[in-house]
Each structure stands twice: as structure tokens, then as C-alpha cells.
Amino acid sequence: MAMNSEIRNAQGERIDYTFHDGGGDVVVAIGHGVTGDKDRPLVAGLASGLAAAGVSALRFSFAGNGDSEGGFGDATISKEVGDLGAVIDALSAAGKTVYYAGHSMGGAVGVLRASSDERIKALVSLAGMVDTKKFVETEFGDVTPGGGDMWEDEDCPLSQTFVDDLTAMDTLVAKGSEVRVPWMLVHGSEDDVVLVRDTDDIFEKAHEPKRKLLISGGVQ
User: Considering the entire predicted model, what is its pTM?
Assistant: First the structure.
């Protein structure tokens, strides 16, 4: 069964997505990281691999990213939690069982959504961001919000809203302890953007069933 319905978030912004029909009633929704979109090789490759294995996947761009509507400067983890909710609404309305896999900042979105939304039946974190305050300080501490860009990418201006959102969250370790579904956490040992300790810290507090996979030599 193909997905062909329009998905809009609470702000009325259209969420761009691609559905990979693998058959069955389970769909893995896949969310990307900061400055990414649904067409990033990791996201597209995961969706294609799942469909080839007989599991449907829906990869999407958070509002303000890729071809989704909205402004990049308004994109925050908190707002993207709502975007994911809109995706889950559409999949649930189509009678699908929802799993979620999130990369980097998309992993943080998954933790927050899964901690409060029972419609997510399984969670995968791919180098998931956990220590949000530390991340924004380390990666963008020398950039002036409203006057500079993320990693010198002119298409990705750093907004004060983004900085304030990650700073206020501080860490997601406590939220991780509220996740009650099967959880797979994957991280590359050489990741210098989201550090392995983020996965280690949240895994320690997570409930069973859980599994941690460290990929030797893997990066972001």
C-alpha cells in the first residue's frame, strides 16, 4: 500500500517525504540530522535497504529543510518533535504500525517523541544527539546567532531560536529513561560531532529491551 497523502505539521507547513513500500503494516519513519534532509545518503540508503528487506520506510525532511515548507531558522528539536507527530498521525491514519529511526539531531527528536507518544513501537538512534547544550557550545560557540552560519554553510544560518532550544534542553538522559519500547542505539567510534559518550550516557539509563552497537572507525 503506497502512501500518497499530504502531511502538514501544526503550523500548516507541508512535510516533504518519500515512501518506500516494502509490504506489511510496519513502517519505519526516518528523520535526518541538523542541516540534513530526506535525501542524505545515510537516510536514503537506510530506507532503500529496509524496503529491499521487506520493511516499508518513510523518509522525510523536517520543516525548513530540503523541500519541506517552512524556514530553516525556525527549525528546532522542539518544533521537529511536532513534525514527527504529524508524520505519525498520517501513518496511523493509514493503519500502519510506526517505528522510528533518527540520525543525530533526528535521534534527539525520536527520544523526545517516543518518551511521550505510545504510537512509536520501536526506536533506533543513529549517533543520536543527547547532550544538546554541550553540542551547541562545542560546534557553534564561536558563531553569532543571527549573524553567522552552521559550519560556514550559507544555506544554514544559525538562529538564536535554535541555540536557545538546545541550551534549555541541556541533556536528554532523563527523557531517555522514559522510553519504554525496544531501543537500538548505534554510534561510530570516531564521531567527533556527536560524541560516543552521548550514546553511552543515555544507554546506561535506558530500559530493557535495549541494545548498543558501536561501529569501529565509524564517523558522523
Answer: 0.96
